[in-house]
Amino acid sequence: MSNSIHPKKQRRRLANKKPGKKLRERKCLVTGETYPAHKMIRFILDPTGNVIPDVAAKLPGRGGWILADRTVLQSAMKKKIFVRFGHRVAASKVVPAGRKRGDVETLEEVGGTPIEKREMGQKMPIKVDENLLDLVEQLLRQRCLNYLGLVNRAGFLVSGFEKVRTKLKAHKGRVLIVAEDAADNGRSKLCSGLGNVLEKIRVIDMFTREQLGQALGLSNAVHVVLLSDGVTESFLKEFSRYEAVAMLQ
Prior knowledge:
Radius of gyration: 23 Å
Strand order of the largest sheet: 8-11-9-10
Oligomer: single chain
Number of strands: 11
Distance between the termini: 67 Å
CATH architecture of the largest domain: 2-Layer Sandwich
Order of helices and strands: HEEEEEHHEEHHEHEHEHEH
Helix content: 25-40%
Shape: elongated
Number of helices: 9
């Protein structure tokens, strides 16, 4: 008996097969380069002229994207990119009704005149908090902690010294999280006799006991291991942004 699939059934399977999800990309207002959106931070202008971070990229209005990198964000502050972005968005509010405007992709000059000045009708004062980068860092950290809560509720998080050690010994860990304020020798005790296990997984020590405890509903969250799953990978994407913004502190 032949194991080949009937041509009609094969065409039906191909027709029902979902295409791969297209990677969403955005252009950075500072570098001018295009990056995956999950490596960037979106900013918007609120109705009173404040530039605010939209780390979940869900707030309404025209946004502007900047690479999640502290050096790049510092450059944006120094070069007044946020102010120029704000003027650009404020200017776009006076365009004829029905004309759709997407997120801002460039602040380059056109014909020798900055776009935001060329398009502006009424000038709105743009306010950029001097502590904007610290706010971005805080929001990204909280978003990471929220994702840890999701991993926990999904059943892919194990806590406690002995339970974590057991998972590491069985090579079932994808990410090891050790509290930033844990005992200096805690990690060495945890991995004693387990060989080079730490070289095979992602190790994170940028959250305190209190932060981990609040996120996970635990009284003493010192050692946590995340198991392989899609929600764990989502956490790692969020953490990569936070790490890139906070690592130069």
